[in-house]
Design goal:
The chain has about 180 residues and is mostly helical. It is built from 9 helices and no strands. Helix 1 runs antiparallel to helix 3 and helix 3 crosses helix 4. The protein starts with a helix and ends with a helix.
Length: about 180
């Protein structure tokens, strides 16, 4: 079933404080890592990249989510670093394009309050894209480390259901490829 607005709001309220506190802990440690030397800050940013989905999907708390992120990222550091780099470049690109377009049409002072509000609206597009990239990286790491499939994801999310499509490994999303179906596509 599709989640209702109430379901989404309930999860959002439940996860708000753990995400905020984990972000404060991680942000402080990462800031100190960058302040001391660049490498520790980059390392901590990468190993804690997927702590938010660990809170939302697995129900981990603040420090537990950071540990879970470290566990998932270990032995996949390069993949996560590249994903993070792409995510930052996408966000920067969206923000840059938005500022160029808006700056060309903005007649007033871009440093005014209204100008800054308009310029900050790029976050409406870039922040959800960044969140999707984090979640996809998290799912990929779970698949890679634990062999996660649709059944185990449904279990983590508390969704009830059973696979009835003949999946060899219990994956509810598994569909057999039939060559006759290729011509229909």
């Amino acid at each position: 079933r599709a989640p209702s607005l109430k379901d989404c709001a309930t999860v959002g309220v439940r996860c708000f404080c753990p995400i905020l506190l984990a972000g404060m802990v991680a942000g402080t440690a990462i800031w100190l890592g960058f302040l001391l030397f660049l490498v520790p800050g980059v390392y901590l940013t990468v190993v804690w990249f997927v702590h938010q989905p660990a809170i939302v999907i697995e129900g981990k708390m603040e420090v537990g989510s950071l540990g879970r992120s470290y566990e998932l990222v270990s032995n996949s550091w390069c993949y996560v670093f590249c994903t993070l780099l792409i995510a930052v470049l996408v966000m920067f690109g969206i923000d840059l394009v938005w500022r160029i377009i808006l700056g060309a049409f903005m007649e007033g002072n871009p440093f005014s309050i209204s100008g800054q509000i308009l310029l900050s609206l790029s976050g409406i597009v870039s922040i959800p894209i960044y969140s999707i990239m984090i979640t996809i990286a998290y799912m990929h790491l779970r698949i890679e480390k634990e062999g996660m499939n649709a059944e185990s994801l449904a279990k983590d999310l508390g969704v009830q259901g059973e696979s009835t499509n003949g999946s060899p490994d219990g994956d509810a999303a598994w569909q057999p490829l039939i060559l006759d179906d290729l011509g229909k596509a």
